[in-house]
User: What shape does this take?
Amino acid sequence: MFAELFRIGRRRALQGAAALLVALGLLVWWLAPFGETSPSGSITFSTGVKSGVYERYGELLKDDLARDLPRMSIGLQTSQGSQENIARVATGESDFTIATADAVATYMKEGKPGADRLRGCARLYDDYVQLVTARSSDIRSVADLRGKKVGVGQGKSGVRLVADQLLTAARIDPAHDITPVSAGIDTMPGRLETGDLDAFFWSGGLPTSVVQKLSERFDIRLVPLDSALISRLHAAGETASRYYRSAEMPADAYRKAQQGTAVPTVAVANLLITTDRTGAELTERFTRTVIGSRDRIGDQVHPAQLVDLRTAIYTDPLPLHEGAKRYYRSAKP
Assistant: This one.
């Protein structure tokens, strides 16, 4: 009798264990759909100049990518800015980057290496052109830069591209009518403060932390870029100019510098870009992480708060990558 009871109990225990294993298997299948595996390997994200928005954004995004792509090693590369970023991705030196739409359009028009392979993942946030000078300066417009020592961004930056366009629109030769200083946002504020620069151009999200900090220790002004200048910019018919729009820096972007006054300026969209060499699944997951990290990153990099799922698909002049299309289809409300 005892042996019979033992056999029954053992059989029931085995049946229970089997049922538990089946249930666990179903749970794993439900949580991780059949056939879907996390991409593995390594990718490089080209960011920007030290102390700039691109660099800080990349540092914060890396944390979220490490969580969402646990089998992928993510490396960051600093750069001079948009123009260098585009060249790196187009030629395979980097896998993903951020760049302004005007710089992308210019690279494509010039038929530079790999231009036809570039693809868009998301429209992110707008950069605002900021022409910064000392409050005591006599510079009140771009035309007043004639004969001045001006920071125009590094040679491969988006800042340099838009600075040259604006100077030309103001009938100033960027090479001869000013003393152009090739420098990044990591050094230009300090050089303005010491008098080594009369003014500098910057193009970035609002507020840019180093400009904010400069305004808190040194009296600066933001020089208006008015609608007449922007009209001349558009009339020039350059490829880049169609991506510039009139905008305003809100009065509270840099409170001390603006003293309650909004400042007219030029804005241009930033794009998350890759190439057709990047796999669809990796691109889909990368794009998902970028959109999903908006609020967390936005707590520290304010422009990231402006990433919007409704407008992210508009990556003109680039076609959307197939992986990004998959994400937007899945995320559609």
